[in-house]
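Fig. S4 source data, part A: sequence.
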Amino acid sequence: MNCKITLYLILSITITINAQVKYSPAWFGPNANPIPEFTDARIPLKTTISLMGDYYFGYGDITTNAYYKIEIPLLPDRVSFKIWNTAFENYEVTEAVSIARAMNGNIKGKASGDFYVQTRISLLKEKIFAPAIILNSTLKTASGTNFNERRYFDTPGYYFDVEIAKSYYTKNKFINEIRTVGNLGFLCWETTGSRQNDAPMYGVKLIIGNNKWKIDNTLSGYWGWMHTNVNYGSDYGDAPLVYAAKLSFLTENMSYFTQYQYGIKDFPYQQIRLGISFPVEILTPNFNKSAP
């Protein structure tokens, strides 16, 4: 009987603690449930690998991580398969942040992130009077570690979004392309007790430059419902909004880029990113090469 009572008490405490966890970017590490990135609504002709290093800072949490993306075009300009992951994360928080997130007194450590798997489908090719439209379908695993230290959720998620883009060309050699991109979608992730948080997601992007360089300016976010419910509180932090500026230098086979991101709301971080992106011919499917 005593054993049953003890087990019941342990289970009750565990459930109570988990029920108090706010499954939102405002109360977790920067890679737990970030605002989904969206592209310029183009699918590459060749398999493309991107390698990045991130430095997040501000609000009592310093995080560094390695990050990679691989996009494989299954049909040229039509369909691609994409996967990305935070391979390694090193973090340190203040004692105040540790207490606020109920991290059991831990203030630093290492973690690895979730895997994201995405299918991209071109619904409409860009023409003189028509924009490019791409549909993305994405799944997030629950493989991220260190949930008890609030680095990653212990639950899966998914999202669907549509990228719509149109380029405008000029005769100016310094800036010969201006591309506008819009993004709309739906993001869903599981919280305590199999309860889902559903969030419309949105974003706009302005890209200017030429074949040597380009600058991306992006404003994006999502709007969860839990912060609007009195049972969870207005500080639930599930309506993040960020601004990012990205500068890329382009060569024939490489892209070098740096990015600064600022958390405007419910994303208590600033980010500095350095990265490279390059095509890999040997990893491009054979049928892609012979397609028209």
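Fig. S4 source data, part B ends here. The first helix runs from residue 2 to 20.
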